[in-house]
Amino acid sequence: MRLDKYLKVSRIIKRRSVAKEIADKGRIEINGKVAKSSTEVAPRDELVIKFGNKTLTITVDELLETTKKDDAERMYTIVKEEYAQDFRQE
Q1: Cα–Cα distance for residue pair 71/18, rounded to 1 Å
Q2: Across the strands, what pairs with 69?
Q3: Pairwise CA distance, residues 4 & 10, whole Å
Q4: CA–CA separation, 69 vs 45, rounded Å?
Q5: End-to-end alpha carbon distance in the chain
Q6: pLDDT tens for residues 4-25?
Q7: Where does the record place the RNA-binding S4 domain (predicted)?
Q8: Quick one: average pLDDT of 20-33?
Q9: Band of the pLDDT at 89, cuts 50, 70, 90?
């Protein structure tokens, strides 16, 4: 399954166009390598997704073509969730 579709179906990112944009900017890694939106995702892959001030590391558990909201969380396991610190001086 394509990376952008996986992120949409699993509801990690709400819109496929946003998932494609983030991936094509080089902000997603699969198993340590920068991935494009068309990169294939497989079970047991580790994804590192860099949002604005948040970095989410997940492991792919399952690939489903369509899901209901309650089933989407079965598709992945969150390994780590980090937030960037605000280093502004006051």
Answers
A1: 21
A2: none
A3: 10
A4: 22
A5: 47
A6: 999 999 999 999 999 999 999 9
A7: 1-64
A8: 93
A9: very low
Distant-in-sequence, close-in-space partners of 81: CB < 8 Å, separation ≥ 6: 54, 55, 56, 57
- Per the CB < 8 A criterion, the answer to whether 44 and 77 are in contact is no
Q: Is the pTM of this model over 0.90?
A: no
Instruction: State both tokens at 57.
Output: 């590391």
E strand or H helix at 5, and its extent?
helix 3-9
**70 is written with which tokens?**
């309650």
Specify the CATH superfamily of domain 3-83: RNA-binding S4 domain (3.10.290.10)
The owner of tokens 């997704």 is: 49
Domains of the chain, by residue range, sit at: 3-83
User: Residue 68: CB partners within 8 Å, gap ≥ 6?
Assistant: none
Residue listed under structure tokens 């920068």: 34
- Bridge partner list, 56: 49, 81
